[in-house]
Write a structure and sequence with these properties.
alpha+beta, Glutaredoxin, disordered N terminus, Peptide Methionine Sulfoxide Reductase, Chain A, peptide-methionine (S)-S-oxide reductase activity, Met_Sox_Rdtase_MsrA_sf, 6-stranded antiparallel sheet, 11 helices, elongated, 432 residues, 6-stranded mixed sheet, 3 domains, Metal Binding Protein, Guanine Nucleotide Exchange Factor, Chain A
Length: 432
Protein backbone atom coordinates (compact mmCIF):
# COMPACT_ATOMS: atom_id res chain seq x y z
CA UNK A 1 0.00 0.00 0.00
CA UNK A 2 2.73 2.40 0.93
CA UNK A 3 4.77 1.73 -2.23
CA UNK A 4 1.71 2.11 -4.43
CA UNK A 5 0.88 5.40 -2.73
CA UNK A 6 4.42 6.62 -3.23
CA UNK A 7 4.33 5.77 -6.93
CA UNK A 8 1.12 7.65 -7.74
CA UNK A 9 1.83 10.72 -5.64
CA UNK A 10 3.93 12.49 -8.33
CA UNK A 11 1.16 11.94 -10.87
CA UNK A 12 -1.42 13.34 -8.48
CA UNK A 13 0.77 16.33 -7.71
CA UNK A 14 1.25 16.97 -11.43
CA UNK A 15 -2.49 16.87 -12.09
CA UNK A 16 -3.17 19.13 -9.12
CA UNK A 17 -0.51 21.54 -10.31
CA UNK A 18 -1.95 21.63 -13.83
CA UNK A 19 -5.45 22.21 -12.44
CA UNK A 20 -4.21 25.02 -10.22
CA UNK A 21 -2.38 26.60 -13.16
CA UNK A 22 -5.50 26.38 -15.30
CA UNK A 23 -7.59 27.96 -12.55
CA UNK A 24 -5.00 30.67 -12.04
CA UNK A 25 -4.91 31.31 -15.80
CA UNK A 26 -8.72 31.50 -15.93
CA UNK A 27 -8.82 33.98 -13.03
CA UNK A 28 -6.14 36.09 -14.69
CA UNK A 29 -8.07 36.04 -17.97
CA UNK A 30 -11.29 37.11 -16.22
CA UNK A 31 -9.40 39.88 -14.44
CA UNK A 32 -7.95 41.05 -17.77
CA UNK A 33 -11.42 41.07 -19.35
CA UNK A 34 -12.83 43.01 -16.41
CA UNK A 35 -9.94 45.47 -16.54
CA UNK A 36 -10.37 45.90 -20.30
CA UNK A 37 -14.08 46.56 -19.86
CA UNK A 38 -13.37 49.09 -17.12
CA UNK A 39 -10.88 50.86 -19.37
CA UNK A 40 -13.73 51.63 -21.76
CA UNK A 41 -16.04 53.10 -19.12
CA UNK A 42 -16.29 56.88 -18.94
CA UNK A 43 -18.47 59.37 -17.10
CA UNK A 44 -20.00 62.69 -18.17
CA UNK A 45 -22.15 64.90 -15.96
CA UNK A 46 -24.83 66.79 -17.89
CA UNK A 47 -27.29 69.48 -16.85
CA UNK A 48 -30.07 70.40 -19.27
CA UNK A 49 -32.96 71.48 -17.08
CA UNK A 50 -35.04 69.16 -14.93
CA UNK A 51 -33.10 65.93 -14.41
CA UNK A 52 -36.09 63.55 -14.49
CA UNK A 53 -36.56 63.44 -18.25
CA UNK A 54 -32.83 63.68 -19.00
CA UNK A 55 -32.07 60.67 -16.80
CA UNK A 56 -34.69 58.56 -18.56
CA UNK A 57 -33.51 59.68 -21.99
CA UNK A 58 -29.88 58.77 -21.37
CA UNK A 59 -30.77 55.45 -19.74
CA UNK A 60 -32.45 54.48 -22.99
CA UNK A 61 -29.35 55.00 -25.16
CA UNK A 62 -27.41 51.93 -26.25
CA UNK A 63 -24.01 51.98 -24.58
CA UNK A 64 -25.10 53.88 -21.48
CA UNK A 65 -24.43 51.73 -18.42
CA UNK A 66 -26.12 53.96 -15.86
CA UNK A 67 -27.70 57.39 -15.47
CA UNK A 68 -28.08 58.92 -12.01
CA UNK A 69 -29.89 62.15 -11.12
CA UNK A 70 -27.97 64.50 -8.85
CA UNK A 71 -26.45 67.90 -8.14
CA UNK A 72 -23.14 69.50 -9.15
CA UNK A 73 -21.26 72.79 -9.59
CA UNK A 74 -22.43 74.52 -6.42
CA UNK A 75 -20.99 75.83 -3.18
CA UNK A 76 -22.33 77.33 0.02
CA UNK A 77 -25.63 75.51 -0.52
CA UNK A 78 -26.59 72.07 0.69
CA UNK A 79 -26.74 69.67 -2.30
CA UNK A 80 -30.35 68.68 -1.71
CA UNK A 81 -33.58 69.30 -3.59
CA UNK A 82 -35.08 71.15 -0.64
CA UNK A 83 -32.14 73.55 -0.48
CA UNK A 84 -31.61 74.28 -4.17
CA UNK A 85 -35.31 74.98 -4.75
CA UNK A 86 -35.58 77.61 -2.00
CA UNK A 87 -36.61 81.03 -3.29
CA UNK A 88 -33.39 82.63 -2.03
CA UNK A 89 -31.36 80.28 -4.23
CA UNK A 90 -33.42 80.60 -7.39
CA UNK A 91 -30.96 83.05 -8.96
CA UNK A 92 -27.98 82.25 -6.74
CA UNK A 93 -24.99 81.80 -9.06
CA UNK A 94 -23.46 79.40 -6.52
CA UNK A 95 -26.54 77.20 -6.45
CA UNK A 96 -26.21 73.57 -7.49
CA UNK A 97 -27.44 72.53 -10.92
CA UNK A 98 -29.72 69.58 -11.52
CA UNK A 99 -27.57 67.14 -13.47
CA UNK A 100 -27.37 63.55 -14.62
CA UNK A 101 -24.22 61.47 -14.16
CA UNK A 102 -23.94 59.30 -17.27
CA UNK A 103 -21.66 56.26 -17.20
CA UNK A 104 -21.09 54.80 -20.66
CA UNK A 105 -19.04 52.27 -22.60
CA UNK A 106 -16.97 54.07 -25.22
CA UNK A 107 -16.85 50.88 -27.30
CA UNK A 108 -20.62 51.19 -27.76
CA UNK A 109 -21.28 54.93 -27.79
CA UNK A 110 -18.74 57.69 -28.28
CA UNK A 111 -18.27 60.73 -26.10
CA UNK A 112 -19.02 62.85 -29.16
CA UNK A 113 -22.38 61.18 -29.72
CA UNK A 114 -23.37 61.65 -26.07
CA UNK A 115 -22.51 65.33 -26.27
CA UNK A 116 -24.49 65.70 -29.51
CA UNK A 117 -27.50 64.19 -27.77
CA UNK A 118 -26.95 66.70 -24.95
CA UNK A 119 -27.07 69.75 -27.21
CA UNK A 120 -29.97 68.44 -29.32
CA UNK A 121 -32.05 67.49 -26.28
CA UNK A 122 -32.54 71.01 -24.86
CA UNK A 123 -32.22 74.69 -25.74
CA UNK A 124 -28.64 75.64 -24.77
CA UNK A 125 -29.27 79.28 -25.71
CA UNK A 126 -31.48 79.76 -22.64
CA UNK A 127 -29.64 80.96 -19.55
CA UNK A 128 -30.68 79.62 -16.15
CA UNK A 129 -33.90 78.15 -17.47
CA UNK A 130 -35.51 75.57 -19.72
CA UNK A 131 -39.03 76.49 -20.77
CA UNK A 132 -41.15 77.23 -17.69
CA UNK A 133 -38.44 75.90 -15.35
CA UNK A 134 -36.62 79.07 -14.30
CA UNK A 135 -33.62 79.38 -11.99
CA UNK A 136 -29.91 78.63 -11.76
CA UNK A 137 -30.63 75.00 -10.87
CA UNK A 138 -31.83 74.55 -14.47
CA UNK A 139 -28.72 75.99 -16.14
CA UNK A 140 -27.19 74.30 -19.16
CA UNK A 141 -23.94 72.73 -18.01
CA UNK A 142 -21.55 70.03 -19.22
CA UNK A 143 -19.01 68.72 -16.70
CA UNK A 144 -16.14 66.58 -17.96
CA UNK A 145 -13.97 63.97 -16.26
CA UNK A 146 -10.98 64.00 -18.64
CA UNK A 147 -9.22 66.25 -21.14
CA UNK A 148 -10.52 64.46 -24.23
CA UNK A 149 -14.11 65.08 -23.13
CA UNK A 150 -13.37 68.76 -22.52
CA UNK A 151 -11.83 69.12 -25.99
CA UNK A 152 -14.74 67.31 -27.67
CA UNK A 153 -17.32 69.39 -25.79
CA UNK A 154 -15.80 72.70 -26.85
CA UNK A 155 -15.42 71.60 -30.48
CA UNK A 156 -19.02 70.39 -30.66
CA UNK A 157 -20.26 73.55 -28.97
CA UNK A 158 -18.69 75.62 -31.77
CA UNK A 159 -20.13 73.31 -34.42
CA UNK A 160 -23.61 73.43 -32.88
CA UNK A 161 -23.44 77.22 -32.55
CA UNK A 162 -23.07 77.48 -36.32
CA UNK A 163 -26.16 75.29 -36.78
CA UNK A 164 -28.14 77.32 -34.24
CA UNK A 165 -27.11 80.66 -35.75
CA UNK A 166 -28.22 79.48 -39.19
CA UNK A 167 -31.60 78.62 -37.67
CA UNK A 168 -31.96 82.06 -36.06
CA UNK A 169 -31.05 81.15 -32.48
CA UNK A 170 -28.79 83.18 -30.19
CA UNK A 171 -25.57 82.38 -28.36
CA UNK A 172 -25.08 79.11 -26.49
CA UNK A 173 -25.08 79.66 -22.73
CA UNK A 174 -23.80 76.19 -21.78
CA UNK A 175 -21.08 76.10 -19.11
CA UNK A 176 -18.34 73.60 -20.01
CA UNK A 177 -15.69 72.74 -17.42
CA UNK A 178 -14.19 69.84 -15.43
CA UNK A 179 -16.33 68.19 -12.77
CA UNK A 180 -15.42 68.94 -9.15
CA UNK A 181 -17.88 66.66 -7.37
CA UNK A 182 -21.16 64.91 -8.12
CA UNK A 183 -23.81 64.50 -5.41
CA UNK A 184 -26.50 61.85 -6.08
CA UNK A 185 -30.04 63.16 -5.63
CA UNK A 186 -32.51 61.75 -3.16
CA UNK A 187 -33.84 58.25 -3.88
CA UNK A 188 -37.31 59.48 -4.88
CA UNK A 189 -35.73 61.40 -7.77
CA UNK A 190 -34.02 58.32 -9.19
CA UNK A 191 -35.98 56.68 -12.04
CA UNK A 192 -38.68 59.28 -11.37
CA UNK A 193 -40.47 58.84 -14.68
CA UNK A 194 -40.62 55.06 -14.28
CA UNK A 195 -42.12 55.56 -10.80
CA UNK A 196 -44.64 58.14 -12.06
CA UNK A 197 -45.99 56.78 -15.35
CA UNK A 198 -48.85 59.24 -15.89
CA UNK A 199 -47.01 62.49 -16.51
CA UNK A 200 -45.31 64.17 -19.47
CA UNK A 201 -41.82 64.51 -20.90
CA UNK A 202 -40.62 68.13 -21.08
CA UNK A 203 -39.35 68.89 -24.59
CA UNK A 204 -37.28 72.06 -24.73
CA UNK A 205 -35.23 71.05 -27.78
CA UNK A 206 -34.72 73.59 -30.55
CA UNK A 207 -35.19 71.03 -33.31
CA UNK A 208 -31.74 71.99 -34.62
CA UNK A 209 -29.52 68.94 -35.13
CA UNK A 210 -25.92 68.21 -36.08
CA UNK A 211 -25.21 67.62 -39.75
CA UNK A 212 -24.51 63.91 -39.19
CA UNK A 213 -27.27 63.37 -36.61
CA UNK A 214 -29.64 60.41 -37.11
CA UNK A 215 -32.39 62.89 -36.25
CA UNK A 216 -31.52 65.10 -39.22
CA UNK A 217 -33.51 63.15 -41.78
CA UNK A 218 -36.56 63.26 -39.51
CA UNK A 219 -36.13 66.96 -38.76
CA UNK A 220 -35.92 67.84 -42.46
CA UNK A 221 -38.80 65.60 -43.48
CA UNK A 222 -41.71 67.61 -44.80
CA UNK A 223 -45.14 66.79 -43.43
CA UNK A 224 -48.39 67.36 -45.21
CA UNK A 225 -50.89 68.92 -42.81
CA UNK A 226 -53.50 69.65 -45.47
CA UNK A 227 -55.75 66.84 -44.24
CA UNK A 228 -55.93 68.59 -40.87
CA UNK A 229 -57.20 71.88 -42.30
CA UNK A 230 -60.73 70.63 -42.94
CA UNK A 231 -63.06 69.12 -40.37
CA UNK A 232 -62.15 67.62 -37.02
CA UNK A 233 -58.85 65.92 -36.25
CA UNK A 234 -56.74 64.79 -33.30
CA UNK A 235 -53.04 65.61 -33.19
CA UNK A 236 -50.71 63.85 -30.75
CA UNK A 237 -47.56 65.88 -30.18
CA UNK A 238 -44.53 63.67 -29.51
CA UNK A 239 -40.88 64.35 -28.74
CA UNK A 240 -38.11 64.24 -31.34
CA UNK A 241 -36.28 61.80 -29.06
CA UNK A 242 -37.30 59.11 -26.63
CA UNK A 243 -40.40 59.88 -24.57
CA UNK A 244 -41.75 57.07 -22.35
CA UNK A 245 -45.05 58.88 -21.77
CA UNK A 246 -45.55 59.12 -25.54
CA UNK A 247 -44.91 55.40 -25.89
CA UNK A 248 -47.28 54.66 -23.02
CA UNK A 249 -50.05 56.78 -24.57
CA UNK A 250 -49.64 54.91 -27.85
CA UNK A 251 -49.69 51.51 -26.16
CA UNK A 252 -52.57 52.27 -23.77
CA UNK A 253 -54.77 54.48 -25.92
CA UNK A 254 -54.02 55.62 -29.44
CA UNK A 255 -52.97 52.32 -31.01
CA UNK A 256 -56.40 50.90 -30.13
CA UNK A 257 -58.23 53.92 -31.53
CA UNK A 258 -60.31 53.15 -34.65
CA UNK A 259 -62.60 56.20 -34.67
CA UNK A 260 -63.60 58.17 -37.76
CA UNK A 261 -61.91 61.39 -36.62
CA UNK A 262 -58.35 61.21 -38.03
CA UNK A 263 -55.56 60.89 -35.44
CA UNK A 264 -52.01 61.86 -36.43
CA UNK A 265 -48.61 62.14 -34.72
CA UNK A 266 -46.39 65.20 -35.06
CA UNK A 267 -43.37 66.82 -33.41
CA UNK A 268 -43.12 70.50 -32.50
CA UNK A 269 -41.35 71.23 -35.80
CA UNK A 270 -44.14 69.69 -37.88
CA UNK A 271 -47.06 72.00 -37.12
CA UNK A 272 -46.88 74.15 -40.25
CA UNK A 273 -50.19 75.71 -41.23
CA UNK A 274 -51.92 74.86 -37.95
CA UNK A 275 -53.17 77.35 -35.36
CA UNK A 276 -51.89 76.03 -32.04
CA UNK A 277 -52.26 77.91 -28.74
CA UNK A 278 -51.16 75.41 -26.10
CA UNK A 279 -47.33 75.42 -25.69
CA UNK A 280 -45.46 72.53 -27.28
CA UNK A 281 -42.87 71.91 -24.53
CA UNK A 282 -44.70 68.94 -22.97
CA UNK A 283 -45.00 65.56 -24.68
CA UNK A 284 -47.33 64.04 -25.31
CA UNK A 285 -49.81 66.86 -25.79
CA UNK A 286 -53.12 65.90 -27.37
CA UNK A 287 -54.68 68.61 -29.54
CA UNK A 288 -58.28 68.55 -30.73
CA UNK A 289 -58.46 70.55 -33.96
CA UNK A 290 -61.33 72.00 -35.99
CA UNK A 291 -60.35 73.10 -39.52
CA UNK A 292 -56.68 73.19 -38.48
CA UNK A 293 -57.29 75.33 -35.40
CA UNK A 294 -56.95 74.17 -31.81
CA UNK A 295 -60.26 73.80 -29.99
CA UNK A 296 -58.61 72.60 -26.79
CA UNK A 297 -55.65 70.46 -25.75
CA UNK A 298 -54.36 68.40 -22.85
CA UNK A 299 -50.68 68.36 -21.92
CA UNK A 300 -49.27 65.07 -20.63
CA UNK A 301 -50.30 61.45 -20.65
CA UNK A 302 -54.03 60.75 -20.79
CA UNK A 303 -55.67 57.52 -19.69
CA UNK A 304 -58.18 55.94 -22.06
CA UNK A 305 -60.98 57.21 -19.82
CA UNK A 306 -59.64 60.78 -19.93
CA UNK A 307 -59.00 60.67 -23.66
CA UNK A 308 -62.45 59.40 -24.59
CA UNK A 309 -64.21 61.84 -22.30
CA UNK A 310 -62.31 64.67 -23.98
CA UNK A 311 -63.06 63.19 -27.40
CA UNK A 312 -66.72 62.89 -26.42
CA UNK A 313 -66.88 66.59 -25.56
CA UNK A 314 -65.12 67.40 -28.86
CA UNK A 315 -67.17 65.17 -31.14
CA UNK A 316 -70.57 65.05 -29.45
CA UNK A 317 -70.71 68.46 -27.76
CA UNK A 318 -73.76 69.20 -25.62
CA UNK A 319 -75.88 66.50 -27.21
CA UNK A 320 -78.11 63.67 -26.06
CA UNK A 321 -75.43 61.27 -27.23
CA UNK A 322 -72.92 62.85 -24.81
CA UNK A 323 -75.40 62.56 -21.94
CA UNK A 324 -76.02 58.91 -22.78
CA UNK A 325 -72.31 58.15 -23.07
CA UNK A 326 -71.06 59.94 -19.96
CA UNK A 327 -74.09 60.60 -17.74
CA UNK A 328 -75.74 57.20 -18.21
CA UNK A 329 -78.66 58.74 -20.04
CA UNK A 330 -81.18 56.86 -22.18
CA UNK A 331 -82.37 57.47 -25.74
CA UNK A 332 -86.04 58.27 -26.24
CA UNK A 333 -87.98 55.26 -27.47
CA UNK A 334 -88.09 55.02 -31.26
CA UNK A 335 -85.69 57.95 -31.57
CA UNK A 336 -84.39 59.12 -34.95
CA UNK A 337 -81.15 57.17 -34.66
CA UNK A 338 -83.06 54.01 -33.79
CA UNK A 339 -85.16 54.40 -36.92
CA UNK A 340 -81.98 54.71 -38.99
CA UNK A 341 -80.35 51.63 -37.45
CA UNK A 342 -83.22 49.19 -36.95
CA UNK A 343 -83.19 47.86 -40.52
CA UNK A 344 -79.68 48.38 -41.85
CA UNK A 345 -78.05 45.97 -44.30
CA UNK A 346 -75.61 43.42 -42.82
CA UNK A 347 -72.76 45.03 -40.90
CA UNK A 348 -71.38 45.98 -37.52
CA UNK A 349 -72.36 48.65 -35.02
CA UNK A 350 -69.27 50.35 -33.61
CA UNK A 351 -68.48 52.62 -30.67
CA UNK A 352 -69.16 56.20 -31.84
CA UNK A 353 -65.92 57.39 -30.23
CA UNK A 354 -63.36 54.58 -30.40
CA UNK A 355 -64.65 52.85 -33.53
CA UNK A 356 -64.46 49.50 -31.74
CA UNK A 357 -66.89 46.88 -33.15
CA UNK A 358 -69.60 46.21 -30.55
CA UNK A 359 -72.65 44.47 -32.06
CA UNK A 360 -73.23 42.55 -35.29
CA UNK A 361 -76.47 42.68 -37.27
CA UNK A 362 -76.47 38.86 -37.18
CA UNK A 363 -77.49 39.11 -33.53
CA UNK A 364 -79.98 41.99 -33.88
CA UNK A 365 -83.68 41.37 -33.36
CA UNK A 366 -86.83 43.46 -33.10
CA UNK A 367 -87.82 43.50 -29.43
CA UNK A 368 -90.63 46.02 -29.99
CA UNK A 369 -89.21 48.18 -27.18
CA UNK A 370 -88.06 51.10 -29.33
CA UNK A 371 -84.37 50.45 -28.54
CA UNK A 372 -81.84 48.46 -30.53
CA UNK A 373 -81.74 44.89 -29.24
CA UNK A 374 -79.13 42.16 -29.66
CA UNK A 375 -78.69 38.67 -28.25
CA UNK A 376 -74.94 39.07 -27.83
CA UNK A 377 -72.10 41.58 -28.32
CA UNK A 378 -68.92 41.14 -30.34
CA UNK A 379 -66.61 38.99 -28.23
CA UNK A 380 -64.58 40.88 -25.60
CA UNK A 381 -65.96 44.27 -26.66
CA UNK A 382 -68.12 45.21 -23.65
CA UNK A 383 -68.02 45.10 -19.87
CA UNK A 384 -71.05 44.27 -17.76
CA UNK A 385 -71.42 45.60 -14.24
CA UNK A 386 -74.14 45.88 -11.57
CA UNK A 387 -76.36 48.99 -11.71
CA UNK A 388 -78.52 49.89 -8.70
CA UNK A 389 -79.57 53.34 -9.90
CA UNK A 390 -83.20 54.53 -9.95
CA UNK A 391 -84.08 51.99 -7.27
CA UNK A 392 -83.67 49.08 -9.70
CA UNK A 393 -81.32 46.12 -9.94
CA UNK A 394 -79.93 45.97 -13.48
CA UNK A 395 -76.77 45.09 -15.37
CA UNK A 396 -75.13 47.99 -17.17
CA UNK A 397 -73.26 47.48 -20.44
CA UNK A 398 -70.24 49.73 -21.18
CA UNK A 399 -67.78 49.75 -24.08
CA UNK A 400 -64.51 48.11 -23.09
CA UNK A 401 -62.21 50.51 -24.95
CA UNK A 402 -63.85 53.90 -24.37
CA UNK A 403 -65.78 53.11 -21.19
CA UNK A 404 -68.92 54.86 -22.46
CA UNK A 405 -72.38 53.79 -21.31
CA UNK A 406 -74.17 51.70 -23.95
CA UNK A 407 -77.30 50.42 -22.22
CA UNK A 408 -78.34 47.38 -20.17
CA UNK A 409 -78.67 43.64 -20.59
CA UNK A 410 -81.81 41.74 -19.55
CA UNK A 411 -82.72 38.05 -19.49
CA UNK A 412 -85.88 38.32 -21.63
CA UNK A 413 -84.41 37.81 -25.11
CA UNK A 414 -85.69 35.26 -27.67
CA UNK A 415 -85.45 31.55 -26.81
CA UNK A 416 -84.03 32.22 -23.36
CA UNK A 417 -81.17 34.35 -24.68
CA UNK A 418 -80.12 37.72 -23.22
CA UNK A 419 -81.48 41.00 -24.58
CA UNK A 420 -78.86 43.69 -24.90
CA UNK A 421 -80.89 46.91 -24.90
CA UNK A 422 -78.57 49.45 -26.52
CA UNK A 423 -78.80 53.21 -27.11
CA UNK A 424 -78.50 53.97 -30.82
CA UNK A 425 -77.09 57.49 -30.37
CA UNK A 426 -73.72 56.21 -29.09
CA UNK A 427 -73.21 53.92 -32.09
CA UNK A 428 -72.09 54.24 -35.69
CA UNK A 429 -72.79 51.67 -38.38
CA UNK A 430 -70.29 50.08 -40.76
CA UNK A 431 -71.80 48.01 -43.59
CA UNK A 432 -70.20 44.70 -44.39
Amino acid sequence: MTNRFIKITPIFLLLFSLSACAQSSENTEQADISKAASNHLSTLVLGLGCFWGAEKYYENLDGVIDAVSGYADGEGVEPSYKAITQAKNRFNENNYAEVVEVTYNTNMISTEDLIKHFFELHDPTQKNRQGNDVGTQYRSILLTTDESQLKAANQLRSEYQRQLSSAGYGEIQTIIKPLQKFHPAEEYHQDYIAKNPNGYCPDHSTGVVFADSPKRKKSLAKVDNSELLTGQSILVLEADGYCPYCEKFRADVSEDYQGNIPLVYRTAKQLQGLKIDTPTWATPTIYFLEDGEETFAKQGYMTAKEFYKALGAFKLGDSEAYKVAFAEGTDNRFCKQYDLFKDTPPGVFVDKLSGEPLFDTEHRFNSGTGWLSFTQPVEDSVIEKPDHSLGMVRTEVVAKTSGIHLGHVFDDGPNGQPRYCINATVLDFVAR
